[in-house]
Amino acid sequence: QVQLVQSGGGLVQAGGSLRLSCAASGRTLSSYRMGWFRQAPGKEREFVAAVNWNGGRTSYADSVKGRFIISRDNAKNTHYLQMNSLKSEDTAVYYCAAAVGISGSYDYWGQGTQVTVSS
After folding, report:
1. What is the distance between the alpha carbons of residues 25 and 104, in angstroms, rounded to a whole number?
2. HSE on the CB side for 16, CA within 13 Å?
3. Edge-to-edge strand list for the sheet holding 68-73
4. What does the alpha-carbon distance between residue 117 and residue 119 come to, in Å, rounded to a whole number?
5. Per-residue pLDDT tens for 59-71?
6. Nearest to 5 by CA among 107, 86, 90, 77
7. What percentage of residues in the chain have a pLDDT greater than 70?
8. Rounded alpha-carbon distances, angstroms, from residue 5 to 12, 69, 86, 99
9. Is the sign of the CA dihedral 105, 108, 111, 116 positive or negative?
10. How does DSSP assign 49-104, residue by residue?
11. How confident is the model at residue 25 (pLDDT cuts 50, 70, 90)?
């Protein structure tokens, strides 16, 4: 049974930075595609970023491109989302996810963590 446990998040002022972590247990996820999603109040969950199995390929939503960085440490079975130059519109619950396939839906999800950016 794969479990994804998130840490990080919290309250930060606009322009600040936060780092989210997502640690996997139950299975080594070094071959999995890993991602981050977020859901703001009253809105649908949206894609934020993804990284392929070895960290060599990343993708980002246009809204975070140039400000957020996704990375992974396969030795620690953990992936990260470094969030810089945060804006109030980044306020949301953030979810990490893992996918077996190189494309398509995600198979496992973290518990979610709140990120609040004050202006």
Report:
1. 22
2. 15
3. 3-7, 18-25, 78-83, 68-73
4. 7
5. 999 999 999 999 9
6. 77
7. 100
8. 21, 19, 23, 15
9. negative
10. EEE-TTSS-EEE-TTTTTTEEEEEETTTTEEEEEE-S--GGG-EEEEEEEESSSSS
11. very high
Burial 23-56 (b: 16+ CB within 10 A, else e): bbeeeebeebbbbbbbeeeeeeeebbbbbeeeee
* Gap between the Cα atoms of 102 and 119, Å rounded: 38
Amino acid at 71: S
Q: Which of 107, 83, 114, 110 is nearest to 4 (CA)?
A: 110
User: Is the CA virtual torsion 51, 80, 37, 112 positive or negative?
Assistant: positive
What does the alpha-carbon distance between residue 60 and residue 51 come to, in Å, rounded to a whole number? 9
Other C-beta atoms closer than 10 Å to the C-beta of 57 total 11
Q: Which residues pair with 31 in a beta bridge?
A: none
Diameter of the chain measured on Cα atoms: 40
The amino acid occupying position 110 is G
Distance separating alpha carbons of residues 34 and 22, to the nearest angstrom: 10
